[in-house]
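## retry 2 of 3
previous attempt timed out at serialization; input unchanged, resubmitting
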Amino acid sequence: MNFLQQSITNTSLFRILSTVSNFLIALLLSRFLGPKVKGEATILLTTITFLVFFCSFVGGQALVYLVPRFRVERLIIPAYIWTILVAALSYILLRHYHVFTWRRSLNICLLSALASTSNIHGAVLLAKREIRKYNITFLLPVLLTLAGLAIYILIFHQNDIYAYLYPLYLAYGITAALSFLYCFRYIAWGPSAEVFDDLDSSFKYGLGYQMFELLQLLNFRLYFYLLYHIQGVSDLGLYSIGVSMLEVAWILGRAVSVIHYSDFSNHDNERVAVEQTLRYLKVVFIASAAILFVIAILPVEFYSMAFGRSFMYVKYQVKWLYPGILMYNLMLVIQSIYLSRGAYGRLIFVQLLALICSVALCYTLIPHYYFSGASGAASVAFIICGVLMLAIFLKDYRIAISRLLIDRSDVLFINNTLKSLLRFRKDG
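## retry succeeded, writing output
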């Protein structure tokens, strides 16, 4: 198995472990702390995600494209400074508009800064094709959060949001420190007047990437906020469990996207990139369809047993998300080739169009159909992204639609790839 295929396999395995850990976190929150605290945790983590997005304007995933082209210290030091500025400004704004209490606002901003620092280091590792170390920094905060949450709930018997908040500090803090040690060898430390020379490139590509990322994030989570304001924190806690279950079907697609982005950014062989993208489209689509089928046939008793009786019928609350979740895998795979070329225009256009449709449908459907309305609106947005991005990809690279059909070589490749997911191998 070559480096690319091995990296995708190992990344998928790490993401499976992460998904299982997140599942256990959700289980602990729902079973021991209830829907209300689960909803508070969802809003807390979603807000941190949005703040990390703004921190990533300088030093986000655009670093995967920039690091092979510029000196690391000229990218990473401005990224640290920008993260501190954004976290400080965010605290001022959250307090000025009374979004949260001062203590909650401070916690959110500090955690966002730590998470952003880990993201900066992770992007450098990914750009340097240190896939194993990147995967460790991806998985470690989830494992530490799970362990800390279990200790606070089962040993210290804490039953409020701080049982989740304190482990987040431990997880993000340790991950930021460890990932820094991983990156240390690539950074030439010392005073230099040239450290900000490439800041314009960081902003240019960082802004383009983050515009795409913001639109994608809004498509992923805007309906969470609308449900929160319309139905309340408890209903959001119920609904988020169902969404987390379905997003398991994105594990392979996200792994392919991450590894392709890193690999394609380090070489200019466009023909190979197109062939790899086309082939993995088929692998990811088939695997995701199989995963969604398994989730669909799980009985309601499974949710009751795992999360508690309050979550028994959550599978029906997200039923309209199934087609959207499946089709968005097309977007996840294809976007990697455009990101690796710094070509953000098409990605932004697709996400913006989907977001406009999503917002219109959310405000129309959620007040009348609640969970089903949110699921339907999000699903339409995901389908738009997947189908439109596929059409653009086929047109840009002059690929016949017939190439999407499975042929004999694809069957052999898919068989070998799916088998490889069952075997854990160390990176080269």
